[in-house]
Design brief:
Length: 151
């Protein structure tokens, strides 16, 4: 990554940062505000960890590739999208140990909003991870410079 990411990368990182904050906000709302009341305890702790991770990612994403390495920041962003999405499916499908509050509740509006935000965040993070993992190819594609054929 260069010391100065392109304006497009900067805009994408800023949008992803907003999505991370949205995931955190949605989960604060779902737990009934802060400090919230999610039981069992492991679900409440999971909410807290997700909310803190969302804020941390929102701070780091605009710095990715400049002041902090891009790869781990985008992995964190992908996890912020993927973790609650998996939790949504598990909590509403088979259920979680000692937690049945949401079992079968597939159409809760806040849950659906959360899924939409998380899905967009995952798509963006995966796309950025693909470019971060191969900066030479990405730079060549952006500059429209042909690369030598692979043998």
């Amino acid at each position: 990554m260069s010391a100065h990411p392109s304006p497009t990368r900067t805009s994408v990182a800023a949008f992803a940062a907003l999505l991370c904050l949205a995931v955190s906000w949605i989960h604060v709302q779902d737990q009934g505000g802060f400090p919230g009341d999610k039981t069992p305890d492991y679900v409440g702790v999971g909410y807290y960890l997700l909310e803190v991770a969302g804020v941390i990612a929102a701070v780091l994403l605009p710095l990715a590739g400049r002041k902090v390495p891009a790869l781990p920041v985008w992995v964190l962003a992908a996890g912020i999208g993927l973790g609650p999405l998996v939790g949504y499916v598990l909590s509403r499908g088979p259920g979680l140990p000692d937690y049945s509050d949401d079992k079968g509740n597939w159409t809760e509006p806040l849950g659906l909003l959360s899924l939409a935000v998380e899905a967009v965040l995952i798509v963006i993070a995966v796309a950025m991870l693909r470019t971060a993992s191969n900066p030479v190819r990405t730079a060549a594609r952006t500059a429209r410079v042909p690369l030598p054929e692979r043998r």
